[in-house]
Design brief:
Keywords: Sugar transport, Transport
Number of helices: 6
Strand content: 25-35%
Largest sheet: 5 strands, mixed
InterPro entries: PTrfase/Anion_transptr (IPR016152), PTS_EIIA_type-2_dom (IPR002178), PTS_SugarTrans_NitroReg (IPR051541)
CATH topology: Mannitol-specific EII, Chain A
Shape: globular
CATH architecture: 3-Layer(aba) Sandwich
Number of domains: 1
Distance between the termini: 12 Å
Structural class: alpha/beta
Protein name: PTS sugar transporter subunit IIA
Pfam families: PTS_EIIA_2
Helix content: 25-40%
Low-confidence stretches: none
Organism: Sporolactobacillus shoreicorticis
Length: about 160
């Protein structure tokens, strides 16, 4: 998707200091609810989905030095917007690996896919996968200090 600015919103880039994915989902989900980007039930639905279908993505297979990410999401019924909210974690938290669910990966960034349109998640996912696997962009994110810098980096 060429128009990355539409996928991201600097207002939906969060800095989180949490110790589990449940705490992360509670914190980010509450903020998304306040901003009316999601509906009540979003946090619970996303938490349940994560337990059944983990979203941790081990990027060390692409680049041994890369940080791992998670791409949590849930059904369209809980979303009022199409785009991606980004959470940078103060310290990495464990997510189960989407490819090998019995393993965990330490995640430093979570990219929350919000999608209010049925059958259109693939373009969001393909944009993110392209971003994750080009050079070492995820580790470069760590050098940025502000929401604005992160927004500019992920949309260019």
């Amino acid at each position: 998707m060429a128009d990355a600015e539409k996928l991201f919103d600097p207002d939906l880039i969060f800095f989180e200091d949490v110790s589990s994915f449940e705490e992360l989902f509670q914190s980010v989900g509450s903020k998304l609810l306040e901003k009316k980007r999601v509906n009540p039930g979003y946090i619970e639905a996303m938490t349940e989905r994560e337990k059944k279908f983990p979203t941790g993505l081990d990027l060390s297979v692409v680049n041994p030095d890369s940080l791992s990410v998670a791409i949590p999401h849930t059904e369209v019924d809980f979303c009022n917007w199409k785009g991606v909210a980004v959470a940078r974690l103060e310290k990495p938290i464990e997510f189960h690996n989407m490819i090998s669910p019995d393993k965990t990966v330490p995640v430093k960034y979570a990219f929350f896919i919000l999608n209010d349109e049925k059958n259109s998640q693939t373009n969001l996912l393909s944009y993110l996968m392209g971003f994750f696997t080009t050079g070492d962009k995820v580790s470069q994110l760590n050098t940025l200090k502000t929401k604005e810098e992160i927004y500019q980096f992920i949309t260019n």
